[in-house]
Amino acid sequence: MNVFDTHIESIASGAALSADDIRELAATPDILPLGMLADTLRRRLHGARTTFLRVAACRFDQSFSDRVPPAAGEIRILGAPDTLDIAVTAVTTAKEVAGSRTVAAFSWADVDRWAAGGRHAEVLEALHGAGLDAIAELPIDTIADLPDAVGRMRSAGFDGLRLSVARVPAADRTRLLLAAADLQKEFGGIQSLDPLPAALNAFRPTTGYEDVKMVAIGRLAAPNIPSIQVDWLRYGPKLAQVALTFGADDIYGVSPSDEAPEGRRRAPLEEIRRNIDAAGFEPVERDGRFSTSR
Prior knowledge:
- The protein is an alpha/beta fold and 294 residues long.
- The protein has one domain (3-255, 263-284): Aldolase class I (TIM Barrel, Alpha-Beta Barrel), CATH 3.20.20.
- Helix content is 44%, strand content 19%.
- The chain contains 11 helices and 9 strands.
- An 8-stranded parallel barrel has the order 1-2-3-4-5-6-7-8, surrounded by 6 helices.
- 41% of the residues are buried.
């Protein structure tokens, strides 16, 4: 039995690959067997189901009421307010519009800035108390003390954490994806991991090969994190569709608009469903808490 067959057998039986196995797979140039391994694990965890979330984005200093379509499952507040008071006001206003829907906003860098002098607990409790459900950006490559940040968020009542990557090159990402799995073991409460960079480098752009390989490594490195996520708005339908066959199971950031000026087939909801279907999976709309009972 070759190494690939051994890995497939281990994954199918419910065992996790070792950190050494993951590092070896990350070094291989052959992504097709890697994709098969990640797909096997993805199907063991989720079957054919692929979830997606429609998100309404609005700047903190704009009106939410006229920018949040009823179809949105989440409101995402954009921008970085200068003060915690402004941030809390924005969250409170967004929550009034959101109702039972989730509100996501800000980054850990914002929390750090507002918590000058070590007031992290106070800042997180204020945001959570105002109705914030999720810190939108928790990049595993730029937070200086990630275990401390995750621990503080869990203590403040935040659940369903969403880890992401800001800009670290693919070659340096595997150790961080393995570290994310260790955080889940230590703290729990991590719902999703997006292994693709949020900041695209115009001088050294990522490649489709590199991207889908990182999606597969993310799935294999962190089998204890429920969802591997791809940003629809940032990476588009082509990459998202291929990523689903390499271990991704959730698509974030689909437009909540139901307008279809170019015809019904080009409406956002129809497009996301069609792309998931074409990849051989079952599209299921979810809310910001990963509930599919919408």
